[in-house]
Automatic annotation (TrEMBL):
<feature type="transmembrane region" description="Helical">
    <location>
        <begin position="273"/>
        <end position="296"/>
    </location>
</feature>
<dbReference type="Pfam" id="PF19300">
    <property type="entry name" value="BPD_transp_1_N"/>
</dbReference>
<keyword id="KW-1003">Cell membrane</keyword>
<dbReference type="InterPro" id="IPR035906">
    <property type="entry name" value="MetI-like_sf"/>
</dbReference>
<dbReference type="GO" id="GO:0005886">
    <property type="term" value="C:plasma membrane"/>
</dbReference>
<dbReference type="Pfam" id="PF00528">
    <property type="entry name" value="BPD_transp_1"/>
</dbReference>
<dbReference type="InterPro" id="IPR000515">
    <property type="entry name" value="MetI-like"/>
</dbReference>
<feature type="domain" description="ABC transmembrane type-1">
    <location>
        <begin position="95"/>
        <end position="296"/>
    </location>
</feature>
<keyword id="KW-0472">Membrane</keyword>
<dbReference type="GO" id="GO:0055085">
    <property type="term" value="P:transmembrane transport"/>
</dbReference>
<feature type="transmembrane region" description="Helical">
    <location>
        <begin position="134"/>
        <end position="157"/>
    </location>
</feature>
<keyword id="KW-0812">Transmembrane</keyword>
<feature type="transmembrane region" description="Helical">
    <location>
        <begin position="169"/>
        <end position="189"/>
    </location>
</feature>
<keyword id="KW-0813">Transport</keyword>
<protein>
    <submittedName>
        <fullName>Glutathione transport system permease protein GsiC</fullName>
    </submittedName>
</protein>
<feature type="transmembrane region" description="Helical">
    <location>
        <begin position="231"/>
        <end position="253"/>
    </location>
</feature>
<feature type="transmembrane region" description="Helical">
    <location>
        <begin position="99"/>
        <end position="122"/>
    </location>
</feature>
Amino acid sequence: MAVYVVRRLLIVLPTLLGVLLVVFLMVRLAPGDPAQLLAGEFATPETLAAIRERFGLDEPLPTQLGLYLVNLVQGDLGQSTRTRSPVTHELATYFPNTVVLTLGAMAVALLIGIPAGIIAAIRPGTVLDLLAMLGALIGVSMPVFWFGLMAILIFSVELGWFPVAGTGSLAHLVLPSLTLGTGTAAILARMTRSAMLEVLSQDYIRTARAKGLAGQVVVFKHALRNAMIPVVTIAGLQFGGLLEGAVITETVFAWPGIGQLLVGSILARDYPVVQGAVLLIALVFILINLVVDLLYGAFDPRIRYD
């Protein structure tokens, strides 16, 4: 396993380099001049030239890329052109809030999606199965921003149960987590149902039942464990997707996470922050995939990392 982990970690470097190159080119080829945004509409050419020189925007693209890579190797992600603070400070300020929101959304998805999928699988064709899959279809179909606005209207404005936006307490986390996690819960419910139905039709499950094992033992000890591999795969991918999808949810609920930071930085052409945020999200996504691969062995001892 150690060799497998090292080999996977070695792949991280070229992957991040590719992500960096794509983002570097995209943000610089996008319309708009960051110097003009910083200096204002009526700035003089001298002021614009001074700003471009200060942030290295007057250099050719290959030179800018080379300087950025040299600084990156030294742990320097640059300085925000908006706030003048280091990018590492910006990410350290906003990213923990996104992690909290993502963990909350993942908890919602797991607590709703997996039990719903199990219930639908052990009662196929019944009203419970129909209701679970109908709920999953609705959850997949609803746009995140619409669901968030409806949640605010009902639970915050009309009922007054939860705060409208912002952070500060556990109550602030409920609606954003529910909004962000509902779509993932629907996907997990459908995947869990499909995997459970396939496993429950296997010969060893019929043998276990024929031996007189209790239904709960058959479902949770034998069937669920073997059905969890595709579910873990989807859950891991969705966890990484929640980090990216948090952009919309954070905007709707004014949640001060990396999504809001990224949107504001793109609008302001804050190249260093955009590059740093995307690199961080890509790194987390890659590491999550590695953890998911390692979890396969916990659910299926037959898997070996040779």
